[in-house]
Amino acid sequence: MSKTVCEWTFGLTRNSRGITSTFGAFQAFYIRDLLSNESASAISWIGSVQAFLVVFIGVFAGPLFDMGYLRVMIVTGCFLTVFGMMMTSLATSFYQVFLAQGICVGLGEGITYIPCLALISTYFTTKRPIAIGIAAVGSSFGGVIFPIMFRKLQPQIGFGWTVRVLGFIALACSVLICVILGRHKGEARKARSLLDMSALRESAFVCWVLALFFLFFAYYIPLFFIVSYSRWALGTSEDFAFYMLAVTNGGSVLGRTVPYLLGQRVKPIYTLLFSSVFGAILLFSWIAIHSLASYVVWCILWGFVAGVLVTAPTSTTAHPVLSPSMNVVGTRLGMSWMGSSIGSVIGAPIAGALANVSTGDFLHAQIFAGVIMLAGAVCLVWPLMSIERYDRAKLRHENSCT
C-alpha cells in the first residue's frame, strides 16, 4: 500500500503544482493572443494568485487532514482543479480566466497538495524523505509534459480544446487518485493550531519566515517569464520558447531530489543557502544571456535551484531551533508556508510591471529578481548560525555524557 500511495501522490502533485509550473506557457499565449489587451503585470496576477492559493490553502488543509477529512479534501480538490480547467477553456476575458484558472484551479491544487505530502509521512518512516522527494517530483513531471502538449495542440485544435485535453488528463488522474487514496479514511487526531504566537518572539524563526518570503518573492519571476524572454528578448521560435519551460521544469527534478538524498550528510539549510546565493547569481547573470545555447544551460541551472527552493524548507523547519517541539512542527510549517505564499503572489506582477515584454526589455525585472533573491539568502544567515550553534552545543553535551 505504501508504494501505491507514493505513486498516486506523485500523480496528485503532477496535477497540482505541475499545472502551476506550466503557467509560463499560458502567460506567453495570453500576452500574444487571448489577453493581448492586458498588461504582462495584470496577466501575471492569474498565475501568482494560483501559486499563492496552492500554498496558502494548504495551511488550512493541514488541520483538516489531522481531523480525518482526507477523502473529502481529495475529492473536492480534484473536482475544483478539473472544473477550473474546463471553465478556463471557455474563458474569453481577463476576469473569466482569473476566476477559473487563478482562483478555482488554485483552490483545488491547494486543498490537495499539502495533505498528499502529509499522507506520505503517515505511511513511510525509514525512507520518508526519499518518498516525499519522489512525490514532489510529480510536479516537475507535469511541468515538463504540459507545456509541450500546450504548444503542440494549441495551433492545431485551438486554445479551448487544448485546455480541455489537459483537463481530461487531470480528470483521468483524479478519478484514479480518488479511488486509490480515497480508501485511506485518515485517522482523526487533535487538529493543530494555525498560529504559534511565541514564534514571533524568536529571532531565528522570524528571519526564517522573512527568508522564505523573499525567496518565493523571486521564485516565480523566471518561471513565469522564461517563455516570454526566449520569444521576445532572444527572438527564438515559439516552439523553442515553450520547450525552455519544459527544460527548466526538467532541471528541477534534480533540485527536488538532491536535498533529500544529501539530507543525512549535509544540513538542508546549507543546501538552501547555497542554492539561494547561486540563484541570485543566476538571476543577475540572466541579464547577460543573449545566445540560445547559454539560455538552455541557464534554464537547466535555474530549474535545479527552483527545485531546491521548493523542497529544502520543509525539513529545515522541523529543526529544534525553528520548531522547539514536535507538537508545534505542523504549526511552524504552516506559518512558514504562509510567509512564502505571500511572497509568491506579488513577485511576478511587480516584475511584469518592470518589464517591457513588447520590446523584449527585461533588465529592470531581472535586477529586481536578483536583489530580492539575495535578500532572502541574507535572511538565511541568522537561522543557519542559530542551528549550527544549537547542534554544536548538543554535540558537546553528548560527548561530555559519554
List keywords for this structure.
single chain; 402 residues; mainly alpha; Growth Hormone, Chain: A; 2 domains; globular
Tell me what the structure shows.
This protein is mainly α. It has 2 domains: 1-186, Growth Hormone, Chain: A, CATH 1.20.1250.20; 198-402, MFS general substrate transporter like domains (Growth Hormone, Chain: A). Helix content is 81%, strand content 0%. It is built from 13 helices and no strands. Helix 1 packs across helix 7, helix 4 packs antiparallel against helix 12 (329-354) and helix 12 (329-354) runs antiparallel to helix 13 (363-401). The longest helix has 54 residues, at 128-181.
pLDDT < 50 runs, ≥5 residues: 1-15
Q: Helices and strands, in N-to-C order?
A: HHHHHHHHHHHHH
| Coarse structural class | mainly alpha
The outline comes out as: globular
Q: Give the CA-CA distance, first to last residue.
A: 42 Å
Strand composition percent = under 5%
Summarize the structure.
This is Major facilitator superfamily (MFS) profile domain-containing protein. The chain has two domains: 186 residues, Growth Hormone, Chain: A, CATH 1.20.1250; 205 residues, MFS general substrate transporter like domains (Growth Hormone, Chain: A, Up-down Bundle). 81% of the residues lie in helices and 0% in strands.
Helix and strand arrangement:
Elements: H1 2-15, H2 17-20, H3 23-34, H4 40-66, H5 70-90, H6 94-123, H7 128-181, H8 203-233, H9 238-261, H10 268-285, H11 292-317, H12 329-354, H13 363-401
Helix pairs in contact: 1-6, 1-7, 3-4, 3-8, 4-6, 4-12, 5-6, 5-7, 6-7, 7-9, 8-9, 8-11, 8-12, 8-13, 9-11, 10-11, 10-13, 12-13
Membrane topology: Multi-pass membrane protein
Protein name: Major facilitator superfamily (MFS) profile domain-containing protein
Family: Belongs to the major facilitator superfamily. Monocarboxylate porter (TC 2.A.1.13) family.
